Amino acid sequence: MSAANADRPSASESGGDGVRGRSPRAGGSAASADELVDVNRPAQRALSGVMLLSFLAIGILTSAVPRYLREGLGVGRGWTGFGTTVYFVAAILVRPTAGKLIDRWGSRPFITWPPVAMAACVLVTQLVPSIWWVVALRFIQGAVGACYTTSTFVAATDLYPAGRRASAVSKLSVVMYVGARQIMAGTMTLG
Predict the structure, then answer these.
(1) Longest alpha-carbon distance in the chain
(2) CA angle 57, 101, 83 (to 5 degrees)
(3) What percent of the chain has pLDDT over 70?
(4) Which of 65, 98, 108, 113 is packed most tightly, with the most Cβ within 10 A?
(5) Closest Cα to residue 18, out of 146, 145, 175, 154?
């Protein structure tokens, strides 16, 4: 196994379940799927909670940015729409590359630094004098958000045994949509 994928165990290292060093049984035998879910439950809940908070924050920002652009910077509706949607354009463009990077280096680094980068962009956005700075910062937010979202889904598959990975990803998707619901609610009230 390469050093780049050190946090992603092979089937032989993990007893075929994809989770290294998590077996609660003595003697090094592979744990059952139910035991693995129980052992990883705190990490699973933490991952879901962080994903929910992240998408709530993204939703709030997506609702607040248009108002800031119109009232704070005085730009028109076209530029307001562009300044808002550039986040999603960046996320779509960067997500395939994010997947390749995560395959190479593992998901852990991409769960830790993107939220910090996104928060820094939010703080700096309040200080910028023009729409172009906002567009650049929103593009960066979308790009690092793509890395974060992809790595979160990869981490979900690492925390569950092979027979439960699809349900884990579907549950995380629900958490994401609950957070993203704020995007739709905020967008529809901007008028």
Answers:
(1) 67
(2) 40
(3) 73
(4) 65
(5) 154
SS3 string of the chain? CCHHHCCCCCHHHHCCCCCCCCCCCHHHCCCCHHHHHHHHHHHHHHHHHHHHHHHHHHHHHHHHHHHHHHHHCCCCHHHHHHHHHHHHHHHHHHHHHHHHHHHHHCCHHHHHHHHHHHHHHHHHHCCCCCHHHHHHHHHHHHHHHHHHHHHHHHHHHHHCCHHHHHHHHHHHHHHHHHHHHHHHHHHHCCC
**pLDDT beyond 80 at 29:** no
In whole numbers, what is the pLDDT of the chain averaged over residues? 76
Rg (CA), the chain: 19
Residues 113 and 128: their CA atoms lie apart, in Å, by 23
pLDDT at residue 155 above 60?
A: yes
Token code pair at residue 175:
């958490």
Cβ atoms of 19 and 36 closer than 8 Å: yes
Residue 42 above 60 pLDDT? yes
Amino acid of residue 11: A
pLDDT at 6: 45
* pLDDT tens-digit map of 64-83: 888 899 999 999 999 999 99
